[in-house]
Amino acid sequence: MDGQIIDISLLPEDWREGRFLGRVATPEGPSPVLIEQGQAYDMAALAPTVSALVEARLFTAEKGRPLGPVETLRWLSPIDLQVVKAAGVTFAVSALERVIEERARGDSGAAASLRARLEERIGGSIRSVVPGSAEAAALKAALIDDGMWSQYLEVAIGPDAEIFTKAPVLATVGGGAAIGVRSDSGWNNPEPEVVLLVDSRGEAVGATLGNDVNLRDFEGRSALLLSKAKDNNASCAVGPLVRLFDQGFTIDDVRQAEVDMLIEGEDGYRLDGHSSMNQISRDPLELVRQALSEHHYPDGFVLFLGTLFAPTDDRDEPGRGFTHKEGDRVTIASARLGRLVNRVTTSKAAPAWTFGVGALMRNLAERGLLAPARAAPLA
Predict the structure, then answer these.
(1) Across the strands, what pairs with 138?
(2) Cis before residue 240, ω within 30 degrees of 0?
(3) Model confidence at 68: pLDDT above 70
(4) How confident is the model at residue 117 (pLDDT cuts 50, 70, 90)?
(5) Which InterPro entries match (predicted)?
(6) What is the pLDDT of residues 238-264, one digit of tens each?
Protein backbone atom coordinates (compact mmCIF):
# COMPACT_ATOMS: atom_id res chain seq x y z
CA MET A 1 0.00 0.00 0.00
CA ASP A 2 2.92 2.37 -0.63
CA GLY A 3 1.33 4.08 -3.63
CA GLN A 4 3.09 5.79 -6.53
CA ILE A 5 3.99 9.42 -7.16
CA ILE A 6 2.02 10.81 -10.15
CA ASP A 7 3.99 13.06 -12.46
CA ILE A 8 1.85 16.01 -13.57
CA SER A 9 2.57 15.03 -17.18
CA LEU A 10 0.48 11.87 -16.62
CA LEU A 11 -2.67 13.90 -15.98
CA PRO A 12 -4.91 15.40 -18.69
CA GLU A 13 -3.85 18.81 -19.94
CA ASP A 14 -7.07 20.27 -18.54
CA TRP A 15 -6.87 18.50 -15.18
CA ARG A 16 -7.14 21.77 -13.27
CA GLU A 17 -10.57 22.37 -14.85
CA GLY A 18 -11.99 18.90 -14.26
CA ARG A 19 -13.04 17.00 -11.16
CA PHE A 20 -11.17 13.81 -10.34
CA LEU A 21 -11.50 11.01 -7.82
CA GLY A 22 -8.66 8.88 -6.51
CA ARG A 23 -7.04 7.25 -3.50
CA VAL A 24 -3.80 8.07 -1.76
CA ALA A 25 -1.61 6.20 0.68
CA THR A 26 -1.29 8.16 3.92
CA PRO A 27 0.71 7.16 7.02
CA GLU A 28 -2.60 6.11 8.60
CA GLY A 29 -3.91 4.17 5.61
CA PRO A 30 -5.67 4.63 2.25
CA SER A 31 -7.92 7.67 1.83
CA PRO A 32 -10.34 8.73 -0.92
CA VAL A 33 -9.34 12.03 -2.50
CA LEU A 34 -11.11 14.59 -4.65
CA ILE A 35 -9.22 16.92 -6.97
CA GLU A 36 -11.10 20.11 -7.62
CA GLN A 37 -9.71 23.17 -9.42
CA GLY A 38 -6.28 21.62 -9.30
CA GLN A 39 -6.30 21.06 -5.52
CA ALA A 40 -6.40 17.70 -3.72
CA TYR A 41 -8.61 17.07 -0.69
CA ASP A 42 -8.67 14.09 1.68
CA MET A 43 -12.31 13.00 2.02
CA ALA A 44 -11.86 10.12 4.49
CA ALA A 45 -13.51 11.92 7.41
CA LEU A 46 -16.67 12.35 5.30
CA ALA A 47 -16.61 9.04 3.40
CA PRO A 48 -13.96 6.45 4.36
CA THR A 49 -13.96 4.71 0.96
CA VAL A 50 -14.28 5.71 -2.66
CA SER A 51 -17.41 3.57 -2.82
CA ALA A 52 -19.02 5.44 0.10
CA LEU A 53 -18.06 8.76 -1.43
CA VAL A 54 -19.71 7.83 -4.74
CA GLU A 55 -22.86 6.48 -3.09
CA ALA A 56 -23.22 9.70 -1.05
CA ARG A 57 -22.45 11.83 -4.12
CA LEU A 58 -19.81 13.79 -2.19
CA PHE A 59 -18.41 15.28 -5.37
CA THR A 60 -17.54 18.67 -3.90
CA ALA A 61 -14.40 19.12 -1.81
CA GLU A 62 -15.80 21.97 0.29
CA LYS A 63 -15.46 20.05 3.58
CA GLY A 64 -12.45 17.94 2.63
CA ARG A 65 -9.02 18.26 4.26
CA PRO A 66 -6.56 20.06 1.95
CA LEU A 67 -3.53 17.98 1.02
CA GLY A 68 -0.21 18.98 -0.47
CA PRO A 69 0.52 19.37 -4.18
CA VAL A 70 -0.82 16.53 -6.33
CA GLU A 71 2.67 15.56 -7.46
CA THR A 72 3.82 14.93 -3.86
CA LEU A 73 1.09 12.43 -2.97
CA ARG A 74 1.41 8.66 -3.20
CA TRP A 75 -1.47 7.51 -5.37
CA LEU A 76 -3.11 4.09 -5.32
CA SER A 77 -5.61 2.55 -7.71
CA PRO A 78 -8.55 4.99 -7.68
CA ILE A 79 -11.15 2.34 -6.74
CA ASP A 80 -11.65 0.22 -3.65
CA LEU A 81 -14.85 -1.71 -2.82
CA GLN A 82 -16.24 -1.70 -6.36
CA VAL A 83 -16.56 -5.07 -8.11
CA VAL A 84 -14.26 -5.14 -11.14
CA LYS A 85 -16.22 -6.22 -14.23
CA ALA A 86 -15.16 -6.32 -17.87
CA ALA A 87 -16.89 -6.55 -21.22
CA GLY A 88 -15.17 -8.68 -23.84
CA VAL A 89 -15.32 -8.90 -27.62
CA THR A 90 -16.86 -5.45 -28.02
CA PHE A 91 -14.89 -4.54 -31.16
CA ALA A 92 -14.79 -6.40 -34.48
CA VAL A 93 -11.01 -6.83 -34.38
CA SER A 94 -11.24 -8.25 -30.88
CA ALA A 95 -13.89 -10.73 -32.03
CA LEU A 96 -11.70 -11.97 -34.88
CA GLU A 97 -8.69 -12.34 -32.58
CA ARG A 98 -10.68 -14.37 -30.05
CA VAL A 99 -11.83 -16.69 -32.85
CA ILE A 100 -8.20 -17.00 -33.96
CA GLU A 101 -7.11 -17.93 -30.42
CA GLU A 102 -9.85 -20.54 -30.28
CA ARG A 103 -9.03 -22.07 -33.68
CA ALA A 104 -5.28 -21.98 -32.98
CA ARG A 105 -5.81 -23.65 -29.58
CA GLY A 106 -3.55 -21.05 -27.97
CA ASP A 107 -0.68 -21.65 -30.43
CA SER A 108 0.61 -18.23 -31.56
CA GLY A 109 2.47 -19.84 -34.46
CA ALA A 110 -0.77 -20.94 -36.10
CA ALA A 111 -2.42 -17.53 -35.83
CA ALA A 112 -1.10 -15.78 -38.94
CA SER A 113 -2.69 -18.05 -41.55
CA LEU A 114 -5.96 -18.22 -39.62
CA ARG A 115 -6.05 -14.43 -39.36
CA ALA A 116 -5.80 -13.95 -43.12
CA ARG A 117 -8.51 -16.52 -43.84
CA LEU A 118 -10.99 -15.23 -41.26
CA GLU A 119 -10.48 -11.61 -42.25
CA GLU A 120 -11.21 -12.49 -45.86
CA ARG A 121 -14.35 -14.45 -44.98
CA ILE A 122 -16.05 -12.39 -42.26
CA GLY A 123 -14.00 -9.25 -41.60
CA GLY A 124 -16.24 -6.83 -43.44
CA SER A 125 -19.57 -8.30 -42.38
CA ILE A 126 -18.78 -8.41 -38.68
CA ARG A 127 -17.73 -4.74 -38.73
CA SER A 128 -21.01 -3.55 -40.19
CA VAL A 129 -23.61 -5.61 -38.35
CA VAL A 130 -25.45 -4.34 -35.25
CA PRO A 131 -25.32 -6.89 -32.37
CA GLY A 132 -28.67 -8.51 -31.68
CA SER A 133 -30.24 -7.27 -34.94
CA ALA A 134 -32.04 -9.30 -37.61
CA GLU A 135 -28.98 -8.83 -39.83
CA ALA A 136 -26.78 -10.27 -37.10
CA ALA A 137 -29.04 -13.31 -36.81
CA ALA A 138 -28.86 -13.84 -40.58
CA LEU A 139 -25.06 -13.57 -40.50
CA LYS A 140 -24.97 -16.11 -37.67
CA ALA A 141 -27.08 -18.56 -39.67
CA ALA A 142 -24.82 -18.17 -42.71
CA LEU A 143 -21.66 -18.68 -40.65
CA ILE A 144 -23.10 -21.78 -38.99
CA ASP A 145 -23.89 -23.23 -42.42
CA ASP A 146 -20.34 -22.38 -43.50
CA GLY A 147 -18.78 -24.04 -40.44
CA MET A 148 -17.35 -20.69 -39.30
CA TRP A 149 -19.41 -20.09 -36.14
CA SER A 150 -17.75 -19.55 -32.77
CA GLN A 151 -18.79 -18.82 -29.19
CA TYR A 152 -16.87 -15.55 -29.52
CA LEU A 153 -18.96 -14.50 -32.49
CA GLU A 154 -22.05 -15.21 -30.39
CA VAL A 155 -21.09 -12.50 -27.87
CA ALA A 156 -19.79 -10.23 -30.63
CA ILE A 157 -23.00 -10.02 -32.67
CA GLY A 158 -25.63 -11.80 -30.56
CA PRO A 159 -28.03 -10.06 -28.15
CA ASP A 160 -25.99 -10.77 -25.01
CA ALA A 161 -22.61 -9.18 -24.34
CA GLU A 162 -19.75 -11.02 -22.67
CA ILE A 163 -19.46 -9.67 -19.12
CA PHE A 164 -17.02 -11.25 -16.67
CA THR A 165 -15.38 -10.48 -13.34
CA LYS A 166 -11.83 -9.33 -13.95
CA ALA A 167 -10.36 -9.08 -10.46
CA PRO A 168 -11.31 -9.36 -6.78
CA VAL A 169 -12.31 -6.28 -4.82
CA LEU A 170 -9.20 -4.22 -3.84
CA ALA A 171 -6.91 -6.28 -6.12
CA THR A 172 -6.32 -3.64 -8.82
CA VAL A 173 -3.04 -1.74 -9.07
CA GLY A 174 -2.63 1.91 -9.98
CA GLY A 175 -0.38 3.90 -12.25
CA GLY A 176 3.33 3.30 -11.75
CA ALA A 177 2.82 -0.13 -10.19
CA ALA A 178 4.07 -3.38 -11.71
CA ILE A 179 1.59 -5.36 -13.80
CA GLY A 180 1.82 -9.13 -13.84
CA VAL A 181 1.49 -11.92 -16.39
CA ARG A 182 1.63 -15.53 -15.29
CA SER A 183 5.16 -16.86 -15.41
CA ASP A 184 3.97 -19.92 -17.38
CA SER A 185 2.35 -17.88 -20.19
CA GLY A 186 4.07 -17.66 -23.56
CA TRP A 187 1.51 -15.59 -25.49
CA ASN A 188 0.02 -12.55 -23.81
CA ASN A 189 -0.64 -8.85 -24.30
CA PRO A 190 -1.96 -5.67 -22.69
CA GLU A 191 -5.52 -4.56 -23.37
CA PRO A 192 -5.88 -0.75 -23.20
CA GLU A 193 -9.43 0.17 -22.28
CA VAL A 194 -11.70 2.93 -21.05
CA VAL A 195 -13.25 2.00 -17.70
CA LEU A 196 -16.53 3.36 -16.33
CA LEU A 197 -17.15 3.92 -12.61
CA VAL A 198 -20.75 2.92 -11.82
CA ASP A 199 -22.73 3.34 -8.60
CA SER A 200 -25.02 0.78 -6.95
CA ARG A 201 -28.01 2.08 -8.93
CA GLY A 202 -26.30 1.45 -12.26
CA GLU A 203 -25.49 5.10 -13.02
CA ALA A 204 -22.10 5.79 -14.59
CA VAL A 205 -20.47 8.66 -12.67
CA GLY A 206 -17.03 8.86 -14.27
CA ALA A 207 -14.35 7.22 -16.37
CA THR A 208 -10.71 6.22 -16.17
CA LEU A 209 -8.19 4.06 -18.04
CA GLY A 210 -7.42 0.40 -17.51
CA ASN A 211 -5.14 -2.40 -18.63
CA ASP A 212 -7.01 -5.71 -18.84
CA VAL A 213 -3.86 -7.83 -19.04
CA ASN A 214 -4.67 -10.95 -21.07
CA LEU A 215 -3.09 -14.39 -21.54
CA ARG A 216 -3.92 -15.40 -25.11
CA ASP A 217 -2.49 -18.90 -24.83
CA PHE A 218 -4.64 -19.81 -21.81
CA GLU A 219 -7.94 -18.50 -23.17
CA GLY A 220 -7.13 -19.87 -26.61
CA ARG A 221 -6.84 -23.41 -25.27
CA SER A 222 -10.32 -23.17 -23.77
CA ALA A 223 -12.77 -20.39 -23.01
CA LEU A 224 -13.27 -22.14 -19.66
CA LEU A 225 -9.77 -20.96 -18.76
CA LEU A 226 -10.90 -17.32 -18.94
CA SER A 227 -10.44 -16.81 -15.20
CA LYS A 228 -6.84 -18.04 -15.39
CA ALA A 229 -6.23 -15.86 -18.43
CA LYS A 230 -7.65 -12.74 -16.78
CA ASP A 231 -7.49 -12.92 -12.97
CA ASN A 232 -3.93 -13.09 -11.69
CA ASN A 233 -1.82 -11.18 -9.20
CA ALA A 234 -1.27 -7.59 -10.45
CA SER A 235 -3.04 -8.34 -13.74
CA CYS A 236 -5.47 -5.41 -13.59
CA ALA A 237 -4.30 -1.78 -13.67
CA VAL A 238 -6.67 1.19 -13.25
CA GLY A 239 -5.94 4.91 -13.23
CA PRO A 240 -4.32 7.20 -12.79
CA LEU A 241 -7.54 8.93 -11.58
CA VAL A 242 -11.28 8.71 -12.25
CA ARG A 243 -12.57 11.74 -14.12
CA LEU A 244 -16.05 12.51 -12.80
CA PHE A 245 -18.78 13.41 -15.25
CA ASP A 246 -19.80 17.07 -15.23
CA GLN A 247 -20.73 19.74 -17.76
CA GLY A 248 -17.22 19.66 -19.20
CA PHE A 249 -16.86 15.88 -19.42
CA THR A 250 -19.77 13.54 -20.21
CA ILE A 251 -20.51 10.04 -21.42
CA ASP A 252 -20.36 11.44 -24.96
CA ASP A 253 -16.66 12.15 -24.38
CA VAL A 254 -16.27 8.46 -23.56
CA ARG A 255 -18.13 7.49 -26.73
CA GLN A 256 -15.70 9.57 -28.81
CA ALA A 257 -12.52 8.88 -26.84
CA GLU A 258 -9.30 8.04 -28.65
CA VAL A 259 -7.01 5.69 -26.75
CA ASP A 260 -3.32 5.31 -27.58
CA MET A 261 -0.94 2.67 -26.32
CA LEU A 262 2.82 2.38 -26.42
CA ILE A 263 4.88 -0.66 -25.46
CA GLU A 264 8.59 -0.04 -24.92
CA GLY A 265 10.81 -3.04 -24.27
CA GLU A 266 14.15 -3.01 -22.49
CA ASP A 267 15.48 -4.67 -25.65
CA GLY A 268 14.65 -1.57 -27.72
CA TYR A 269 11.35 -2.99 -28.98
CA ARG A 270 8.57 -0.47 -29.61
CA LEU A 271 4.93 -1.01 -30.54
CA ASP A 272 2.25 1.65 -30.98
CA GLY A 273 -1.47 0.90 -30.84
CA HIS A 274 -4.65 2.91 -31.11
CA SER A 275 -8.33 2.42 -30.27
CA SER A 276 -11.26 4.62 -31.25
CA MET A 277 -14.22 4.22 -28.95
CA ASN A 278 -16.58 5.21 -31.76
CA GLN A 279 -15.82 1.80 -33.29
CA ILE A 280 -17.32 -0.09 -30.34
CA SER A 281 -20.18 -2.41 -31.32
CA ARG A 282 -22.34 -1.77 -28.26
CA ASP A 283 -22.96 1.57 -26.56
CA PRO A 284 -21.11 1.95 -23.23
CA LEU A 285 -24.35 2.47 -21.32
CA GLU A 286 -25.83 -0.66 -22.91
CA LEU A 287 -22.82 -2.56 -21.59
CA VAL A 288 -23.46 -1.05 -18.14
CA ARG A 289 -27.08 -2.21 -18.36
CA GLN A 290 -26.01 -5.73 -19.24
CA ALA A 291 -23.39 -5.78 -16.49
CA LEU A 292 -25.97 -4.70 -13.93
CA SER A 293 -28.50 -7.24 -15.23
CA GLU A 294 -30.68 -8.34 -12.31
CA HIS A 295 -27.79 -8.22 -9.86
CA HIS A 296 -27.19 -5.68 -7.13
CA TYR A 297 -23.78 -4.22 -6.39
CA PRO A 298 -24.19 -2.36 -3.09
CA ASP A 299 -20.72 -0.84 -3.39
CA GLY A 300 -20.96 -0.17 -7.12
CA PHE A 301 -18.71 -1.55 -9.84
CA VAL A 302 -16.27 -0.55 -12.54
CA LEU A 303 -16.65 -1.81 -16.08
CA PHE A 304 -13.86 -2.26 -18.62
CA LEU A 305 -15.43 -1.50 -22.00
CA GLY A 306 -13.23 -3.70 -24.18
CA THR A 307 -10.42 -2.97 -26.59
CA LEU A 308 -9.85 -2.55 -30.30
CA PHE A 309 -6.15 -3.29 -29.78
CA ALA A 310 -4.97 -6.79 -30.66
CA PRO A 311 -1.22 -6.84 -31.40
CA THR A 312 -0.34 -9.11 -34.31
CA ASP A 313 3.12 -7.82 -35.27
CA ASP A 314 5.92 -10.33 -34.81
CA ARG A 315 8.24 -9.47 -31.94
CA ASP A 316 10.86 -12.16 -32.33
CA GLU A 317 10.29 -15.15 -34.62
CA PRO A 318 8.28 -14.65 -37.85
CA GLY A 319 4.72 -15.83 -37.40
CA ARG A 320 4.87 -15.87 -33.60
CA GLY A 321 3.14 -12.52 -33.13
CA PHE A 322 3.50 -10.35 -30.04
CA THR A 323 4.00 -11.32 -26.44
CA HIS A 324 5.25 -9.42 -23.40
CA LYS A 325 8.74 -9.57 -21.99
CA GLU A 326 9.62 -8.67 -18.44
CA GLY A 327 10.53 -5.01 -18.17
CA ASP A 328 8.14 -3.82 -20.91
CA ARG A 329 6.85 -0.33 -20.18
CA VAL A 330 3.17 0.01 -21.15
CA THR A 331 1.62 3.46 -21.55
CA ILE A 332 -2.13 3.84 -22.13
CA ALA A 333 -3.22 7.40 -22.89
CA SER A 334 -6.36 9.37 -23.69
CA ALA A 335 -6.50 13.17 -23.87
CA ARG A 336 -9.27 13.69 -21.29
CA LEU A 337 -8.21 10.86 -18.94
CA GLY A 338 -4.42 11.12 -18.78
CA ARG A 339 -1.82 8.38 -19.01
CA LEU A 340 -1.68 5.04 -17.21
CA VAL A 341 1.90 3.75 -17.11
CA ASN A 342 2.99 0.35 -15.78
CA ARG A 343 5.96 -1.95 -16.16
CA VAL A 344 5.55 -5.67 -16.84
CA THR A 345 6.74 -8.41 -14.54
CA THR A 346 5.41 -11.87 -13.71
CA SER A 347 2.52 -12.35 -11.34
CA LYS A 348 4.90 -14.43 -9.23
CA ALA A 349 7.46 -11.62 -8.98
CA ALA A 350 4.97 -8.77 -8.53
CA PRO A 351 4.34 -7.60 -4.96
CA ALA A 352 1.91 -9.95 -3.27
CA TRP A 353 -1.61 -8.63 -2.79
CA THR A 354 -2.21 -8.71 0.97
CA PHE A 355 -4.45 -5.70 1.73
CA GLY A 356 -7.93 -7.16 1.27
CA VAL A 357 -11.37 -6.24 2.55
CA GLY A 358 -10.68 -7.48 6.07
CA ALA A 359 -7.47 -5.47 6.31
CA LEU A 360 -9.24 -2.35 5.02
CA MET A 361 -12.06 -2.68 7.56
CA ARG A 362 -9.59 -3.12 10.42
CA ASN A 363 -7.63 -0.11 9.25
CA LEU A 364 -10.72 2.11 8.99
CA ALA A 365 -11.91 0.97 12.42
CA GLU A 366 -8.54 1.76 13.99
CA ARG A 367 -8.71 5.24 12.44
CA GLY A 368 -12.19 5.80 13.84
CA LEU A 369 -13.69 6.18 10.36
CA LEU A 370 -16.40 3.54 10.70
CA ALA A 371 -19.67 4.60 12.29
CA PRO A 372 -20.66 2.34 15.22
CA ALA A 373 -23.23 -0.27 14.32
CA ARG A 374 -26.74 0.33 15.63
CA ALA A 375 -28.32 -2.34 17.80
CA ALA A 376 -30.82 -4.52 16.00
CA PRO A 377 -34.44 -3.86 16.98
CA LEU A 378 -36.00 -6.27 19.44
CA ALA A 379 -38.28 -8.88 17.94
Answers:
(1) none
(2) yes
(3) yes
(4) low
(5) FAH, Fumarylacetoacetase-like_C, Fumarylacetoacetase_C_sf
(6) 999 999 999 999 999 999 999 999 999
**Would you state the pLDDT for residue 317?**
77
CB 238 within 8 A of CB 174: yes
In DSSP notation, 96-127 reads HHHHHHHHHTT-GGGHHHHHHHHHHHHHHHHH
For residue 140, give the H/E element and its range.
helix 134-145
Full-model pTM: 0.89
Domain coverage including residue 116? 92-157
Q: What tens digit of pLDDT does each residue of 153-176 get?
A: 777 778 899 999 999 999 999 999
Q: Are residues 254 and 298 in the same domain?
A: yes
- In 3D, which of 49, 43, 46, 33 has the Cα closest to residue 81? 49
CA–CA separation, 291 and 305 (whole Å): 11
- Domain final position from 157, 175, 200: 157
Please enumerate in sequence order all residues whose Cβ is within 8 A of that of 25, keeping only pairs 6 or more positions apart, or say none: 1, 2, 3, 74, 75, 76
Q: How many domains does the chain have?
A: 2
Q: Which residues pair with 274 in a beta bridge?
A: 260
Helix axes 111-128, 92-104, angle to 10 degrees: 150
Instruction: Report the C-alpha gap between 378 and 110 in whole angstroms.
Output: 67
Do 219 and 225 form a contact (C-beta atoms < 8 A)?
yes
- What is the torsion angle, in degrees rounded to the nearest 10, for the CA atoms of residue 237, residue 239, residue 242 and residue 243? -130
Helix (H, G, I), strand (E, B) or coil at 69: coil
**Which residues are registered as beta bridge partners of 304?**
86, 195
